[in-house]
Amino acid sequence: MQPTPTPAYVIGIDYGTDSVRALLVDARTGTEAAQAVHPYARWKTGQFCNPARNQFRQHPLDHIEGLEAVVRRVAQHVPAEQVVGLAVDTTGSTPGPVNAQGVALALTPGFEDNPNAMFVLWKDHTALAEAAEINHKARTWGGEDYTRYSGGIYSSEWFWAKITHILREDEAVAAAAHSWMEHCDWLTLLLTGGDLATFKRSRCAAGHKAMWHVSWGGLPAEQFLEHLDPKLAGLHNRLFTETYTADEVAGHLSEEWAQRLGLTTNTVVAVGSFDAHAGAIAGEIEAYSMVKVMGTSTCDIVVAPTVEVGDHLVAGICGQVDGSVIPGMLGLEAGQSAFGDLLAWFRNIVEWPLHHVLPDSTVLTPEQQDALRDEMSDALLVKLSEAAAAVDHAESAVLALDWVNGRRTPDANQALKGALMNLTMGTNAPQIFRALVEAICYGSKQIVERFEAEGIPIKQVIGIGGVAKKSQFVMQTLADVLDRPIRIAVSEQAPALGAAMYAAVAAGIQPDVQTAQKAMGSGFAETYLPNPARVDDYAARYAQYQAFGRFVESATSGPDEPVMETEAPAITTA
């Protein structure tokens, strides 16, 4: 008889936009033993954010408090010594300034309430001007174009644009910041207590957002950074040269964090990653699959054999990086800056009276009133979806653009704005909501078409994330618009499961990522098939969406990307 293997568990820790979650899984089978979620307290109340300025900052205390809360809750389900590894994934690009010891500046005296000393969330677009400068100077400075492997257009959502903006805006932060770290790297350093100078930085974060590439020796040259802004002088040498894939060992839990989390110092900590990349692993991504991580925004992840893609560069995406998703394969990333966020925006518009018009109740306590408002808010999207699904296209020609938070891909331009057309006195809320759902699906179709036009075939589409799991209406519309099946992964916490897979490899339980996927994957819950009766109708409306987009972009050019001179299109309605 074969001896029974010692139980081995790993924890995937997934930092999303609004909350952090932890997933405890069997490192051999992927069986989920426990999960926990913790919302960010400061973020929930809007602290340190200014949506009117597209400023979205998060305090590291939100992340630390959440880390302790979720890991302790899941770790209590098994003996501490059986937890052999953990890994962190986060949103990105979400960089923050740190001192020489790797401590986030917002955790140091004098910077506790300074938003510029905090983590600059992925959807913060305060660096529009800096992104435009990077794009212009990368093409004109006379040396290497460092945007080549970032789709040829650098975004205000990314590492260098955000750093440059804050260094220009805040002299105190500029003077105190020894270095800068992506959120996934900082959390991993925090857990291991390692040395900042020798710490293993994330390949996916550096390659997709910081213009790191092996062909030019790592990060952009010091000369280019100084050319971009003298305030960047010297930072190059305080960052990093090498990067590491997410299946590698970053270190072990420090004594402090082993005690705080109820684990042991034998627990391996894997190199950090981005949530979409970890989610793609859990979605059982394989060559030429597109895994769509659908939440507040989308990230569309594709992997391809490096030898097949060769030196070909895909224009207008969020980078292509060797090993960023699966070691040994090329990872390609695209996405939309608003997906669920667009629908939430409309919900907030519609529910405004709930918060500002309804009188205080003499029967209900304030807490009960808040709970009732939350219940009504949750029900609103459900009712809107039901009514929108019943809208007859022949009775509504409303058309929308999904750019309320700019456009990530194809061809990043975060200065773009959303728009609606064909409104009449008969237009109602379900018709507008349906137009918004169609718009996010049309934006997805543009991404698929860009990959295929650039010679990267999309052989299957896999959906993960909150929208994929919760909204049949959105997913069926997406299948109809794309005119291809969409498989939905079973796991409710796909990024956390993917991080757990990385941890299982780093801890030596699984030999490689592909084996971990097969052993620990949860499979697929359902498949949405395109409705043939809808496909042609959506194809016609998609053409209108494209024409509408060209017109709006030509009329409202922004600094992220020069807009081609275009005549206003003749836009017809259905």
TrEMBL record:
Pathway(s) per entry: Carbohydrate degradation; L-arabinose degradation via L-ribulose; D-xylulose 5-phosphate from L-arabinose (bacterial route): step 2/3
EC numbers for this chain: 2.7.1.16
Keywords: Arabinose catabolism, ATP-binding, Carbohydrate metabolism, Kinase, Nucleotide-binding, Transferase
Broad class of enzyme this protein falls into: transferase
One GO molecular-function entry: ribulokinase activity
Record's keyword annotation contains Hydrolase: no
InterPro entries: ATPase_NBD, Carb_kinase_FGGY, FGGY_C, FGGY_N, Ribulokinase
Catalytically driven reaction(s): L-ribulose + ATP = L-ribulose 5-phosphate + ADP + H(+)
Pfam family of the protein (one): FGGY_N
Stored NCBIfam families: L-ribulokinase (TIGR01234), PRK04123.1 (NF003154)
Cited PANTHER family: FGGY CARBOHYDRATE KINASE DOMAIN-CONTAINING PROTEIN (PTHR43435:SF4), RIBULOKINASE (PTHR43435)
Family, similarity comment: Belongs to the ribulokinase family.
Entry protein name: Ribulokinase
Organism: Hymenobacter negativus
